[in-house]
Design brief:
The structure holds 2 protein chains of 2 kinds. By secondary structure, chain A is an alpha/beta fold. Chain A contains 14 helices and 9 strands. In chain A, helix 1 runs antiparallel to helix 2, helix 6 packs parallel to helix 8 and helix 10 crosses helix 11. The longest helix of chain A has 23 residues. Chain A is globular and about 70 Å long. The N terminus of chain A is likely disordered. The model of chain B has no long low-confidence stretch (mean pLDDT 92). Classes of the chains: A alpha/beta, B alpha/beta. At the A-B interface, helix 7, helix 8, helix 9, helix 10 and helix 11 of A face strand 4, helix 6, helix 7, helix 8 and helix 9 of B. Strand 9 of chain A pairs antiparallel with strand 4 of chain B.
């Protein structure tokens, strides 16, 4: 069995900049509540502060900007792929390693789980918890070997009729010299083409950030689900800003302009369902976040249960075939 | 000579020239000079433009391959060509604005390049062998891949399957078009899924990678060719050189991501001079058509205004007779 990455206890959550006024208010409330004084004045004050905190919470979380959602999506304590795997299948996880051609890229992890009695192949980009793990998993930035391992596992799933689940959380493929030498572009291209040919249902869950070809290399699916604060983009807002605005400091504007939130992508017909998150993001209440993912996965499995291999391929083809915006004279 | 003298002399010269003009002498104006002469980017040799054009826009002195437009490429590769979907143009699904609105960039690009978007598709013939072509043009917004590029290439592949003809895509692109956000990323899937069908239909897919080919184009249809040809001198890669240098803090070798470098690392089958490409493509088509026994449908020849070969007619007649033959049994 896998080693369980420790869940974050709520008091150890690192607040984001825009959450700080809320945290300050909460501390005030806690200080008052723990005071041994039960006078009416204090309890009135407590009530006022609690009301203030509630309205502030609504204000902060009710109107999140795309750039703030991106901060949540990249939160270092956000549940990662191995933690989701552990939650979906606590008793069964057979991790499968290697591309059979000389490497095991740990930026992508994969293996077999049993979800509600259904054997499934899970493949995902893995962001580590802390520096040591992140170095092992290269911050979720895969090399060609990772995509080739993923393809091997997809083919295995196809052979044994296992539905595929991919979990996406990556800043993109790793832009390195060896990646180019070992044909990162071709590795991603081949995965896209071969995922289109799979006879089994494929579900992709965008968990945090999903950037560019690095995400797409494991992202061709019958259904794409996105966590409420997850973002899926053609290029990182920083990268886009540095090219189009000529400065990465315009990342906030780029995040807005690129329309990369789960809500935007649902409107565009790219995202098939949004998985709700606890207020403030999944890291505030991992248990309910995992439950929501499991619930959506169950719906997905039920949706495609009776589809033939041909029907699955056709549905997948049509999903992407219809995406595009153009006019004809 | 003092500066004062120099100015005096220049004034004198200018006046002399004006007089010559007035006298109707054939002084070649700068503008006309630029039209007639070309200075090579690589070896700095001044050449009459006509010499360059007669040499397929390859410098006759140093062999430097200048970028050429889609129509020029098509004229160089094919004997006849019928364009498909010529009137398709981009819309602005994100209402995207960076330092300029996307709609303005579209209008400017169309005016400057005299193209509707960054790819020309259609049916062509190389030595009387029909082939579906998609040729990208760097002059239109850096050959970036948006919805129009994805849709036209996908339709060309679908048409090729319907007509039972091979496909060749000629790439020239900086990658996905950021102004169309996720719509552009999804074109990688749309085109690759169509190529999956082409693959299953057993039809030949050739890619010709030209200067430059990067990003999402490399990571989808660019590198999915059964046979991949790179034009001499072309730079091809996934991540841009600058991005890699910034990530790994290393200077990259001068030949990094060139056609020759890619061949050294096993990523392209052939590196060819522009003058060799048509002959070799014609040969490849003949060899594969012969061995696979695939015959283009008569409609392909009819579209091109070519005589339908007897072999094709006989095969189609035999096909139509089949039900009758079956009945006789």
């Amino acid at each position: 069995m896998m080693s369980t990455p420790s869940a974050v206890s709520p008091e150890k959550i690192q607040p984001l900049d825009f959450e700080k006024p809320l945290i300050a208010l909460q501390k005030q409330i806690e200080a008052l509540a723990t005071a041994q004084n039960n006078s009416e004045g204090i309890s009135n004050q407590l009530q006022t502060l609690q009301q203030q905190a509630e309205s502030l919470r609504q204000e902060v979380y009710g109107n999140l900007l795309p750039a703030q959602r991106l901060q949540i999506a990249r939160h270092p304590q956000r549940p990662n792929t191995l933690e989701v795997i552990q939650a979906l299948s606590p008793d069964c996880w057979i991790e499968l390693h290697g591309d059979r051609a000389g490497a095991d890229d740990r930026a992508i992890v994969g293996g077999i789980i049993e979800f509600e009695g259904q054997p499934m192949m899970v493949v995902g980009t893995q962001k580590g918890r802390g520096m040591k793990e992140n170095l092992v998993h290269n911050f979720g930035m895969a090399n060609p070997e990772g995509y080739r391992k993923a393809l091997r596992l997809f083919e295995h799933a196809n052979k044994f009729n296992m539905p595929i689940l991919t979990l996406i959380d990556t800043p993109g493929a790793y832009p390195g010299i060896e990646g180019e030498q070992h044909a990162i572009g071709h590795a991603i291209a081949l995965n896209i083409r071969e995922m289109a040919r799979m006879n089994v249902p494929i579900f992709s869950v965008v968990m945090g950030e999903a950037s560019s070809g690095g995400a797409l290399g494991i992202g061709v699916a019958n259904h794409i689900y996105m966590l409420e604060h997850a973002q899926y983009t053609v290029i990182s807002p920083e990268g886009c800003a540095s090219i189009l605005w000529r400065s990465a400091s315009f990342a906030t504007q780029a995040a807005e302009a690129l329309k990369i939130t789960a809500q935007d992508l649902t409107t565009f017909g790219i995202c098939d369902a949004i998985i709700p998150e606890p207020q403030g993001g999944s890291h505030y209440d991992t248990a309910s976040a995992f439950e929501a993912i499991a619930k959506q996965l169950k719906i997905g499995l039920a949706t495609f249960k009776d589809y033939s291999a041909e029907a699955l391929k056709n549905q997948r083809y049509e999903k992407y075939r219809s995406i595009g915006a153009f006019t004809e004279k | 000579m003092s500066l004062k003298d120099w100015f005096a002399q220049r004034k004198e010269n200018t006046q002399a020239e004006k007089q010559l003009d007035a006298e109707g002498m054939n002084r070649v104006a700068d503008e006309q000079y630029a039209k007639l002469w070309h200075q090579c980017f690589s070896c700095n040799t001044n050449l009459p433009k006509k010499d360059l054009e007669d040499n397929l826009d390859v410098c006759p002195v140093c062999g430097y391959h200048n970028r050429i437009g889609a129509y020029q490429r098509i004229a160089q590769l094919t004997d006849t060509f019928v364009e498909w979907d010529a009137g398709m143009t981009a819309t602005d699904p994100l209402l995207f604005t960076d330092t300029e609105p996307y709609v303005k960039r579209i209008a400017d690009a169309q005016r400057k390049s005299k193209l509707n978007d960054a790819v020309i598709t259609g049916l062509g013939a190389i030595n009387e062998q029909p082939i579906a072509l998609a040729v990208m043009d760097f002059a239109y917004m850096g050959g970036s891949m948006g919805s129009v590029v994805g849709e036209k290439i996908t339709r060309a592949i679908e048409q090729a399957i319907a007509l039972n003809v091979p496909v060749c895509v000629v790439t020239a692109s900086g990658g996905a078009r950021m102004q169309e956000g996720m719509f552009s990323l999804m074109q990688m899937v749309k085109t690759s899924a169509a190529l999956a069908r082409l693959h299953d239909a057993g039809l030949l897919y050739l890619t010709l990678l030209t200067e430059p080919t990067f990003g999402g184009v490399t990571a989808s249809y660019g590198t999915l060719g059964d046979i991949i040809i790179a034009e001499e001198g072309a730079r091809i890669g996934f991540a841009g050189r600058r991005v890699i240098e910034q990530t790994i803090h290393q200077k990259l070798p001068a030949d990094f991501q060139t056609a020759g470098y890619l061949q050294k690392y096993g990523q392209v089958d052939r590196v060819l001079k522009r003058s060799e490409i048509k002959t070799e493509m014609g040969l490849l088509l003949r060899l594969h058509n012969t061995s696979s026994g695939k015959l283009a449908h008569s409609q392909a020849y009819q579209q091109l205004g070519l005589t339908v070969p007897d072999t094709v007619l006989q095969a189609e007649i035999a096909l139509h007779k089949q039900p009758a033959l079956a009945h006789n049994h």
